[in-house]
Amino acid sequence: GDSVTQMEGPVTLSEEAFLTINCTYTATGYPSLFWYVQYPGEGLQLLLKATKADDKGSNKGFEATYRKETTSFHLEKGSVQVSDSAVYFCALSDFSGGYNKLIFGAGTRLAVHP
Amino acid sequence: NAGVTQTPKFRVLKTGQSMTLLCAQDMNHEYMYWYRQDPGMGLRLIHYSVGEGTTAKGEVPDGYNVSRLKKQNFLLGLESAAPSQTSVYFCASKPKASVNEQFFGPGTRLTVL
């Protein structure tokens, strides 16, 4: 079945450092891809999405490009802030089993220090 | 708009007790979902609903039941809680036409002793 693999965390960075969180997927067909963010004590929020190959999703300085040839959707940010400390989940949309659902990766915890 | 709200925020149960988690959304969304979040495993879908009066099983439905008597509410029940059900539970909703952009509640942390 479809699946999502994320790099294991935690990722610890200093403020203003460059961030990459790797995400690769396995899917039949052409899923939409998502990054969700979970701040401490809160639910998940959609950060960005891409619905077809070569699309670039972007929001709040974060970017990710849908790479069909490498089945990847890596999250990047040029200069992280302390307020970016959170858990980041990569996800894909799946239509198998007769219903529309999201399949999540295990999550990557990011800690940014001043 | 409050978005997606969940009640309660925290709960501790003893093995064998029952409880109901309530999810409410004020966005008129058709689809609603219940997930559990466990360390290192991301979110796993328990049950979902595509409309009022309809429910279906997700990836990990055993030990849980759900009901959607009103469009805005989606209830998750544990009839006889077990320690393996210790988890954080998230409810989500989305409009029918959305490409899976789900809106999440703040979660319920459940501990079963």
Description of the structure:
- The complex is a heterodimer of chains A (114) and B (113).
- Chain A is mostly beta strands and 114 residues long.
- Chain A has strands at residues 3-6, 11-14, 19-21, 23-26, 33-38, 44-50, 56-59, 62-65, 75-77, 86-94, 101-104, 108-113.
- In chain A, the strands form 3 sheets. In chain A, strands 2, 5, 6, 10, 11 and 12 form a 6-stranded mixed beta sheet that branches. Chain A has a 4-stranded antiparallel beta sheet with strand order 3-9-8-7, with no helix packed on it. In chain A, strands 1-4 form a two-stranded antiparallel sheet.
- Chain A is globular and about 45 Å long.
- Chain A starts with a strand and ends with a strand.
- Chain B is mainly β and 113 residues long.
- Chain B contains no helices and 11 strands.
- In chain B, strands 2, 4, 5, 6, 9, 10 and 11 form a 7-stranded mixed beta sheet that branches. In chain B, strands 1-3-8-7 form a 4-stranded antiparallel beta sheet, with no helix packed on it.
- In chain B, a hairpin with a 2-residue loop joins strand 5 and strand 6 (54-57).
- The model of chain B has no long low-confidence stretch (mean pLDDT 93).
